[in-house]
Amino acid sequence: MKLPTKHLITVGAGVVVFGAVSAFAATLAVGSTSLGSGNATVVTCNASAAVSYTSSYSVSGPRGYRLSTTPVTAAAGCAGMAFKVTVTDAANDALAEQTGTLDGTGSAIPGFSSANVASSLVTGVSVVITG
């Protein structure tokens, strides 16, 4: 049985395209601070980071305790890395976020006063450190 020529061209083109896609996928690089296609061990700078929050009483605007700062403490190996702190409410909705860079000791004290978040609404604080 002889296949029509148009089917052989279609099958041949599919093999060429698949081979080219496979070749491109094999060239993607993976590093220790970024991930692409493939796998690699991503080194952590710290086993755990500590984050908390402080409040201060506001006499201007709505009176009451307002979120003031969220001190972040990580290992010195995290120094100079970017961070994002998010404070959340009881429904796990973000109330405010701050980003920045950890100092030479792996710490930061992002300020939240301008966000004007009532301390009574804050039920969670999380931090993400990326390098």
Number of DSSP helical runs: 1
Low-confidence stretches: 5-28
Helix-and-strand structural type: alpha+beta
Measured distance between first and last alpha carbons: 61 Å
- What characterizes the major β-sheet? 3 strands, antiparallel
Strand content: 25-35%
Which descriptor suits the 3D outline? elongated
Q: Mind telling me the C-alpha Rg?
A: 25 Å
Across the major sheet, the strand order is: 1-4-7
SSE run: HEEEEEEEE
> What average pLDDT do the residues reach?
78
Range of helix content:
10-25%
| Number of beta strands | 8
SSE blueprint and pairings:
Layout: H1 5-25, E1 50-51, E2 54-58, E3 64-69, E4 72-73, E5 82-88, E6 94-101, E7 107-108, E8 124-130
Antiparallel strand pairs: 1-4, 2-3, 4-7, 5-6, 5-8
Short description:
This protein has 131 residues and is of the alpha+beta class. It has a domain of 75 residues. Strands 1-4-7 form a three-stranded antiparallel beta sheet, with no helix packed on it. Strands 6-5-8 form a three-stranded antiparallel beta sheet, with no helix packed on it. A two-stranded antiparallel ribbon has the order 2-3.
